[in-house]
Design a protein that fits this description.
The chain has 336 residues and is α+β, with helices and mostly antiparallel strands. The protein is built from 9 helices and 18 strands. Helix 7 runs antiparallel to helix 8 and helix 8 runs antiparallel to helix 9. It is globular, with a radius of gyration of 20 Å. Strands 1-18-17-16-11-8-7-3-2 form a 9-stranded mixed beta sheet, with helices on one face. A 3-stranded antiparallel beta sheet has the order 4-6-5, with no helix packed on it. Among the domains are: 154 residues, ApbE-like domains (T-fold, Roll), CATH 3.10.520; 67 residues, no CATH class.
């Protein structure tokens, strides 16, 4: 088992021993695949009611994927990307996700940037991760220099509910679209009781289950090929909020014989050069957590830590490549 050195700043508190708590043991649950991830649902209600609710939540994920996926040529996002330079009327879903993405880009000063699809594909992430990991890919450095980082130029016409992309710009809404969908799924499932949605490791909770202060959610050690079964570092109570993790530990591949990953630094258009292995962010909204997890990681541990601790609405943990864990004081109150 890997050993992680723990540092909790401003409090003098250090974590020595933790225990894993499994939310699947007491509540009806359902798993399926969507948006390139394993989705897990839990609901504090009777099994019959939960089964019907889970079917609706799974259908929600399937519908949103058809709209938001960059891998589906027929998706509404792909159609929008193919019509850059035009005003394009869009559905409520695509409008809301793009607006949210632009808001998060502004909040992070562009360190989260939804316009990086060209740079992402130039880095080799031009197919689903499963295919990229199996076959490897080639970096196209010329393409990486084109049409990214100009999120302020996205046109949003609320009266017509229409979006304009500058010629050549294409959007990637992968993480933020998944977070938006997880939030919608929580709102849906909450009609029947307290609920939890795990969207590929990014977790959004509704109300706490009966008798508990929150849903017990484990913070896992980074993934390694030597230890694919990730150990739990600690457990947090999560209620009416989200945890999102960004990392360079798993979605990696070979490009031109070199290791590459999917987290693009908007300042360079290249895979981020960072000493951070993973970042986990707590926020009230899933899309905010998603955006800030990326924004902190691409900056590296020194600047990323400074940015994180200056955000009063966030809490988080950073695991560096030399296996140190930096945790904000505000996360301590969530430890189970």
């Amino acid at each position: 088992m890997r050993r992680i050195a723990y540092c909790v700043f401003r409090s003098g508190y250090a974590i020595r021993n933790t225990k894993t708590m499994n939310p699947t043991s007491s509540y009806p649950s359902h798993t399926f695949r969507a948006m390139g991830s394993r989705i897990g649902l839990w609901l504090d209600t009777n099994p019959e009611t939960a089964a019907a609710a889970f079917a609706q939540a799974e259908a929600l994920f399937a519908f949103n994927e058809q709209v938001l996926s960059r891998f589906l040529p027929e998706s509404e996002l792909s159609q929008l990307n193919g019509r850059a330079g035009e005003w394009v009327p869009v559905s409520d879903l695509l409008w809301n996700v793009v607006c949210d993405a632009v808001l998060q880009a502004e909040a992070t000063n562009g360190l989260f940037d939804p316009t990086l699809l060209n740079a992402l594909e130039a880095a080799g992430y031009d197919r689903s991760f499963e295919l990229v990991a199996m076959t490897g890919t080639q970096i196209n450095a010329d393409d990486a220099d084109k049409n990214w980082g100009n999120w302020r130029q996205i046109g949003l016409d609320a009266d017509r509910q229409a979006i304009w992309l500058p010629p050549g710009m294409r959007l990637d809404l992968g993480g933020i679209g998944k977070g938006f969908t997880a939030q919608e799924a929580v709102e849906l499932l909450s009609q029947w009781g307290p609920c939890l949605v795990d969207a590929g490791g990014d977790v959004t909770a509704g109300a706490a289950p009966r008798g508990l202060p929150g849903w017990p959610v484990a913070l896992a050690a980074p993934w390694t090929a030597e230890s694919p079964e990730q150990a739990d570092l600690l457990t947090l109570w999560l209620a009416e909020s989200s945890l999102a993790t960004s990392g360079i530990d798993y979605r990696r591949w070979q490009s031109n014989g070199r290791a590459a990953h999917h987290l693009i630094d908007p300042r360079t258009g290249r895979p981020a050069q960072t000493d951070i292995l993973t970042v986990t962010i707590w926020a009230e909204q899933a899309t905010m957590a998603e955006a800030w997890a990326t924004a902190v990681l691409v900056q590296g541990s020194a600047q990323g830590w400074q940015a994180l601790t200056q955000q009063p609405r966030l809490a988080g943990a950073i695991i560096t490549q030399n296996e140190h864990l930096l945790m904000t004081e505000s996360l301590q109150g969530l430890i189970a």
